[in-house]
Amino acid sequence: MSAGGGTKAILAALGANAGIAVAKFVGFLFTGSSSMLAESVHSLADTSNQGLLLLGQRTSRRRATREHPFGFGRDRYFYSFIVALMLFTLGSAFALYEGIHKVEHPEPLTSPLVAVVILVVAICLEGYSFFTAMGESRKIKGDVSWWGFIRQSRTPELPVVLLEDTGALLGLVFALAGVGLAELTGDPVWDGIGTIAIGSLLGVIAIILIVEMKSLLIGEGATEQQLDTICTELAAGKVERVIHIRTQYLGPEELLVAAKLALAPNLTVAEVAQAIDDAEARVRAKVPIARLIYLEPDLDRQPA
Q1: CATH label, 224-299, candidates 3.30.559.70, 3.30.300.30, 3.30.70.1350, 3.30.40.10
Q2: pLDDT digit of tens for each residue in the chain (304 aa)?
Q3: d(C-alpha 105, C-alpha 242), whole Å
Q4: Superfamily of structural domain 3-218
Q5: What's 88's DSSP letter?
Q6: Which residue spans traverse the membrane (predicted)?
Q7: Could you state, in order of their start, the residue ranges of all structural domains in the chain?
Q8: Of 142, 144, 146, which is closest to residue 162 (Cα–Cα)?
């Protein structure tokens, strides 16, 4: 996937979260609701996160250097990992702390209607961001489930935005429920309970993102379908079979392929070189992101 779709989703989330963060904080000042404060910090963290994702896209486009000969494509994984950590620390930890404090020391809300109006508007804005991310993701998701897309995608930005927006929408529902129940029952403890629910939700999402981004940052290979296609294209022409193969994503749009190939016997040097060139061309035609291909020719020493 080109960065365009991811950038559109990030910008939609950035604009929505920046506006929502301001509105929520104003709502907290009017109401004193811990749910509103937790949601304000959550939206502020999300706004910062989108800025980091954009920074990662920009720095990943730097040219390769002698010190970094394979380029900087993994910057996008690094900044996505930082986003997951920020979601956990700024979002989850703060909300849990604030929620527990409010449960232990409940305080009555003032002007709860202001909070309800702001939360409903925020749900509309977050919904716009969420459906934008879903629309961009559908272009590359294929037939896999949404959970499968989040687990298997080698492009970090869209899964991050999808999970962030999902957490934001559910968090807003929890905040709305907390404020509403606190007003209906006259018991402000419900506001604290809603805040704890927000913190727990953000913690789960953050852990999922941390695990997935860590895996990408360490280095993941081609998908099963890509690997099958690569092996099929390599084992053609004068190539008798693939002896062994290793693949790794150097960035979301750059795949490294290294393989040892068994060639037909009695080939001249020129024929060996042509067979290798042809194999590379076949792979690139079917898997365009396989930009770096290193092939080692060998004789087939399989026992008869």
Answers
A1: 3.30.70.1350
A2: 445 447 878 888 888 878 888 887 888 888 777 777 777 877 787 788 888 888 988 998 899 899 999 889 899 999 988 888 877 777 788 888 888 988 888 877 777 788 788 888 888 888 888 888 888 888 887 788 888 888 888 888 888 888 888 888 888 888 889 888 988 888 889 988 988 998 898 889 889 888 988 998 898 999 888 999 999 999 998 999 999 999 999 988 899 999 999 998 888 999 999 999 999 999 999 999 999 999 999 877 665 5
A3: 67
A4: Cation efflux protein transmembrane domain (1.20.1510.10)
A5: I
A6: 9-30, 77-97, 109-131, 160-181, 193-211
A7: 3-218, 224-299
A8: 146
Q: Distances from the Cα of 116 to the Cαs of 25, 129, 179, 181, in angstroms?
A: 13, 20, 7, 11
User: Does the predicted model carry a pTM greater than 0.90?
Assistant: no
The DSSP annotation for 90-119 comes to: IIIIHHHHHHHHHHHS----S-HHHHHHHH
- Count of beta carbons in the 10 Å neighbourhood of residue 63: 7
